[in-house]
Amino acid sequence: MITQSEIATENIRDQIIRGEVPPGAHLQENPLSEQLGMSRTPVRTALNTLAQEGLLEYVAKRGYRVKEFTIAEIVDAYNVRATLEGMACRLVAEKGMDRWSRSKLEKCIEDGEAIIQKTGAEITDDNFDGQAWRQMNTTFHQTIIEASENSFLQQQIKQIIFIPVAALFVLADWGSRVNAGNIKRAQVDHINIVDALERRQSARAEARMREHLENTGRVIQDYYENTQETHIEDDQSVA
Questions:
Q1: Predicted confidence (pLDDT) per residue in 79-129, tens digit
Q2: What tens digit of pLDDT does each residue of 45-61 get?
Q3: Distance CA 70, CA 178 (A)
Q4: HEC letters along 154-181
Q5: Which of the following CATH numbers is that of domain 4-66: 1.10.443.10, 2.130.10.10, 1.10.10.10, 3.40.50.720?
Q6: Does domain 71-238 sit in CATH 1.20.120.530?
Q7: Closest CA to 194 of 111, 129, 81, 79
Q8: What are phi and psi of 26, to 5 degrees?
Q9: What is the pTM assigned to this prediction?
């Protein structure tokens, strides 16, 4: 049975990840209790849990504040996640995939291809179904993590995932922009990862997953640096 504190944790975490609560914002028990329609006790527990996850930080006499992440921290988080999920891939390949996991991953490949095909000749912001892609991508990674059957590893990955995802709103409109090359590359990565898992090639499966996630970190860093350069040029032109 899901507890009130778990419900509060999920709700507050979702608000942070979606960027509805900006970095640096202070979260107070009373307003959150009224918003969620529950007492302060589960909200207090939720805030403490999110602080342990790294999404909040405690400020003396002011309560909890949404943590602000630097681009370096986001990239670091992706690199750590790459290592952990690479390990998950290796474990799955070594013991072999069960039929249920194989079916889910193959369905993710099919869904990814269908999303790309629907865009026609060129992927753009207007024709790309970002929500469907994110759902597929989440299912893909979660299936492999669960198939590793290593509860400690699963917990560590679960925690590290929140940091880069929640921190992406420091990149202005990162989430609203589509890069066709990155989408197609990710689809090829997924295909290669599944192929390595099916062939029980543990070293290859681990390497492909690590490369897949490390590349995402590099893409984010490049986007951030290019955005910063553009802002500097704009400021100089105004001056």
A1: 999 999 999 999 999 999 999 999 999 999 999 999 999 988 788 878 888
A2: 999 999 988 889 998 88
A3: 22
A4: HHHHHHHHHHHHHHHHHHCCHHHCCCHH
A5: 1.10.10.10
A6: yes
A7: 111
A8: -90, 140
A9: 0.78
